[in-house]
């Protein structure tokens, strides 16, 4: 097990900071300009950024506007040890804070709070940053104050409050790829005691990529987002204020835009084709699907917050309601397993859509599939060529079927909090929290008959897109929690804070899948001449799939000690615990995987594979424990700010998303890594170098290790998924007067993200479904055909964003560019070990445009 000497690292950090201070002092003349003081609410009360004993990155309204931050990925890239993946569909983001990454199909790993309201829907994070005043990113477990799911940290967003006087702003923008944006804000008093604010944003883009099958440039990574938000602030009297927020958004975008890369060394030898064991970073992307991936979302948000001053105590009460309706429709993945190989539509498509050479009677469509069997080979239909080809996923043929998903959630939550006078030597916070959440999750797979698609979970065999595999569950969650914090001034320079929270979470799941047979169109659903059920769990529960329930509880303490070493230097240490409740995979997950991948002795395909998976229909709670030592300082007459921290984190039952592809289609599941250790260091700085120039930057280092993983024992000793060893960022802002009332403003941001694994397996050989196909005597030779993911690590990458503009008293004109060097890198790699390959998604390419805004 790797270890890190925190004392030695802390000493090195101190020396490095002193060296940086000395160097900057030597080369920079003295000016009367100071760094802007920032007030944060990390501990649910206003405090100076430099005094709060938490590693916090705060981004002000001015920084948001100067950098052109419009969506969460824009600010994530400006801080060390924080990364984001945004690929499968709008809102399906995975944020990694200090190496702990949020998990698809599970709860988030960080608390997301908007204007003091905890957002319980994970999709709520990836929204437009509309009318935002400040963003705070808290690193390390924050469960004591922010509760369930704050195992890696918290992200707090404060929007602009209604104004005391009438004001407004309009902004329009245009960019490449037919990008168009428009925002509008109007605010002011409605009566002497009532103020309001109304905002709107529109964003649309065709995206960077083209569907080469249809020729459409707006079918891949396109996006259209329309968002409305309103806010009323009512001063009922001198002691009571009511804050009502409402929001509505409609989003339509691309989805499931992946290609596949094999990691099968045995196929290279068997077929003399190196493409079967390729580096994911060297892939040339082709999007050629006949079912364009689409994602539609409709979100409604309501909240009411009351702030009441009761003597020396502030009382805060919050009620919030959120509702999300979402579906995804896209091509499927199962063509390589021949499920729909002999359907009428597949046979018709293969006649004209194949990459067999013309000399062999083929259509030679290398534009869709690449060179013949390099690695994909699609053949025209005949008795000799059926069940012989090697298909990629998401093809222009009907041979891969389709997939349909729903992610609907309705929740109601509330918090009651009491806060003492913050000027007292003993300060305290106490509160109660509750949430009621209902989430419907659908994953359906079926036949593409060429007759269109009904957007619903189940389609009977007579419908245009009959269902052959269906997971459809309703998850109900009830949360109750109590929390409190005490802050003691042990002396004029030392503060001790003790916080504790108790969470109790009841989770229930019921199955909505009808007890019917598959359509019979997919040959892989036919066993011994009989068509199987559309959910394998019915094989074990012929009279109906039973409901399930479980309860998860956790104490989440936090202790911090802060010392004001000098007027400008603060040092702190902390210990904290975070908790993410356990949960349920869709019913039938274990039965499906056992049949295809695990040995049972019943003659099932899993007997030949024997993957020894331990994936079940439920998973355990996750508990994170972290120690942190940090220092915050301001130097050079308040023109230089340096903050740094070292930390060590242990995670029990880290929830990890696994993707499975096979003859059944696709399957998403949450597993757990039994024990994970992460340690690291991070530092950021801001300096007002001259009257016209400001510099900022940071770097982070992570050292992670999978200590125990009973589901994938071969992965023990590997790095944590999505935990790059290094992240750096550096930027500069120039502000120069060019005439009376007009300034030239420029900002440049550079980011480096180190190479990154996306799976626990990082080169260790494990069995694949091809071991089963090797026993059938067809085109696949006898096994073993183990996967090797040593070439599935994403390479390091660097991006540069820039923005240049003129600012007047009431207007701003800017030109901007993102990824201006057009760096090509992978946004995500999803390894599917039992498939023997990875599904990969490209990053956004270079984007540029012009914005104009006017304030009144």
Automatic annotation (TrEMBL):
Q: Domain TonB-dependent receptor plug, which positions?
A: 49-154
Per the similarity annotation, which family is this? Answer: Belongs to the TonB-dependent receptor family.
What is a single Pfam family found in this protein's UniProt entry? TonB_dep_Rec_b-barrel
Q: What is this protein called?
A: TonB-dependent receptor
Keyword Ligase applies: no
Q: Cross-referenced PROSITE patterns, in alphabetical order?
A: TONB_DEPENDENT_REC_3 (PS52016)
GO CC, alphabetical = cell outer membrane
Looking up Gene3D superfamilies in the UniProt record yields:
TonB-dependent receptor, beta-barrel domain
Matching InterPro entries, A to Z?
Beta-barrel_TonB, Beta-barrel_TonB_sf, Plug_dom, TonB-dep_rcpt-like
May I ask which residue range the UniProt record assigns to the signal sequence? 1-32
Q: Lineage, please? A: Bacteria, Pseudomonadati, Pseudomonadota, Gammaproteobacteria, Cellvibrionales
Protein location = Cell outer membrane
Keywords annotated in UniProt: Cell outer membrane, Ion transport, Iron, Iron transport, Membrane, Receptor, Signal, TonB box, Transmembrane, Transmembrane beta strand, Transport
Q: Does the keyword Manganese apply?
A: no
Q: Which residues form the TonB-dependent receptor-like beta-barrel domain?
A: 403-820
What membrane topology was assigned to this protein in its record? Multi-pass membrane protein
Q: Name one GO biological process term.
A: iron ion transport
Where is the major localization of this protein?
A: membrane
């Amino acid at each position: 097990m790797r270890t890190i000497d925190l004392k030695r690292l802390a000493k090195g950090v101190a020396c490095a900071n002193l060296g940086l201070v000395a160097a900057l002092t030597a080369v920079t003349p003295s000016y009367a300009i100071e760094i802007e003081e920032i007030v944060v609410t990390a501990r649910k009360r206003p405090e100076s950024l430099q005094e709060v004993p938490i590693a916090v990155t705060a981004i002000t309204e001015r920084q948001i506007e100067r950098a052109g931050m419009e969506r969460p990925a824009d600010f994530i890239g400006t801080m060390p040890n924080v990364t984001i993946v945004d690929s499968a569909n709008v809102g399906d983001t995975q944020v990694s804070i200090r190496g702990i990454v949020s998990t698809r199909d599970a709860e988030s790993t960080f608390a997301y709070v908007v204007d003091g309201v905890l957002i319980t829907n994970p999709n709520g994070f990836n929204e437009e940053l509309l009318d935002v005043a400040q963003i705070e990113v808290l690193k390390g477990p924050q469960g004591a104050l922010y509760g369930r799911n704050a195992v890696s940290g918290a992200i707090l967003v404060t929007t602009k409050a209604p104004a005391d006087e009438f004001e407004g702003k309009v902004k329009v923008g245009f960019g490449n790829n037919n990008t168009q944006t428009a925002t509008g804000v109007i605010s002011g008093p409605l009566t002497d005691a009532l103020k309001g604010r109304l905002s709107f944003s529109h964003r649309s883009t065709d995206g960077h990529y083209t569907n080469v099958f249809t020729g459409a440039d707006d079918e891949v990574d396109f996006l259209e987002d329309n968002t409305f938000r309103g806010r009323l602030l009512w001063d009922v009297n001198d002691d009571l204020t009511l804050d009502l927020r409402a929001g509505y958004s409609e989003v339509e975008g691309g989805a499931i835009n992946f290609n596949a890369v094999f990691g099968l060394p045995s196929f290279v030898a068997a077929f003399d084709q190196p493409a079967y064991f390729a580096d994911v970073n060297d892939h040339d992307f082709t999007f050629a699907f006949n079912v364009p991936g689409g994602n539609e979302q409709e979100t409604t948000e309501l909240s009411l917050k009351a702030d009441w001053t009761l003597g020396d105590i502030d009382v805060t009460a919050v009620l919030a309601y959120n509702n999300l309706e979402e579906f995804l429709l896209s091509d499927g993945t199962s063509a390589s397993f021949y499920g729909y190989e002999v359907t009428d539509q597949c046979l018709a498509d293969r006649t004209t859509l194949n990459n067999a050479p013309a000399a062999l009677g083929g259509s030679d469509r290398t534009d869709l599939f690449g060179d013949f069997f390099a690695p994909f080979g699609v053949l025209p239909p005949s008795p000799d060529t059926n069940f012989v080809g090697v298909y990629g996923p998401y093809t222009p043929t009907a041979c891969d079927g389709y997939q349909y998903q729903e992610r609907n959630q309705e929740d109601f939550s509330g918090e009651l909090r009491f806060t003492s006078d913050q000027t007292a030597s003993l300060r305290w916070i106490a509160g109660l929290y509750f949430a009621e959440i209902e989430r419907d999750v659908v994953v359906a797979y079926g036949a593409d008959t060429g007759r269109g698609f009904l957007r619903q979970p189940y389609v009977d065999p007579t419908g245009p897109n009959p269902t052959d595999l269906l997971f459809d569950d309703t998850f109900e969650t009830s949360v109750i929690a109590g929390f409190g914090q005490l802050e003691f001034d042990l002396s004029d320079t030392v503060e001790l804070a003790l916080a504790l929270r108790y969470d109790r979470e009841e989770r229930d799941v019921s199955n909505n899948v009808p007890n019917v047979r598959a359509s019979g169109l997919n040959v892989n659903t036919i066993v011994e001449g009989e068509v199987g059920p559309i959910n394998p769990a019915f094989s074990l529960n012929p009279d109906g799939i039973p409901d399930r329930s479980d309860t998860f509880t956790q104490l989440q303490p936090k202790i911090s000690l802060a010392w004001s070493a000098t007027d400008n230097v603060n040092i702190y240490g902390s210990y904290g615990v975070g908790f993410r409740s356990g949960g349920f995979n869709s019913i039938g997950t274990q039965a499906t995987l056992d049949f295809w991948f695990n040995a049972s002795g019943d003659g099932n395909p899993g007997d030949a594979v024997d993957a020894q998976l331990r994936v079940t229909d439920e998973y355990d709670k996750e508990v994170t424990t972290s120690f942190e030592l940090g220092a915050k300082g301001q130097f050079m007459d308040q023109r230089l700010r340096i903050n740094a921290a070292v930390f060590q984190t242990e995670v029990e039952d880290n929830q990890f998303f696994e993707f499975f592809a096979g003859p059944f289609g696709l399957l998403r599941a949450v597993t757990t890594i039994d024990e994970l250790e992460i340690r690291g260091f991070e530092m950021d700085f801001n300096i007002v170098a001259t009257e016209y120039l400001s510099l900022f930057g940071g770097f982070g280092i992570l050292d992670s290790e999978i200590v125990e993983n009973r589901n994938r024992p071969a992965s023990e000793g590997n790095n944590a998924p999505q935990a790059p060893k290094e992240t750096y960022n550096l930027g500069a802002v120039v502000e120069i007067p060019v005439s009376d009332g007009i300034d030239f403003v420029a900002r440049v941001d550079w980011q480096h993200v180190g190479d990154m694994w996306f799976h626990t397996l990082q080169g260790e050989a494990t069995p694949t479904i091809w071991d089963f196909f090797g026993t059938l005597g067809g085109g696949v030779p006898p096994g073993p055909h183990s996967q090797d993911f040593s070439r599935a690590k994403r390479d390091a990458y660097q991006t540069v964003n820039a923005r240049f503009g003129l600012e007047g008293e009431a207007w701003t004109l800017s030109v901007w560019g993102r990824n201006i060097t057009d760096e090509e890198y992978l946004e995500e790699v999803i390894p599917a070990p039992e498939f023997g390959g990875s599904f990969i998604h490209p990053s956004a390419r270079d984007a540029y445009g012009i914005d104009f805004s006017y304030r009144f």
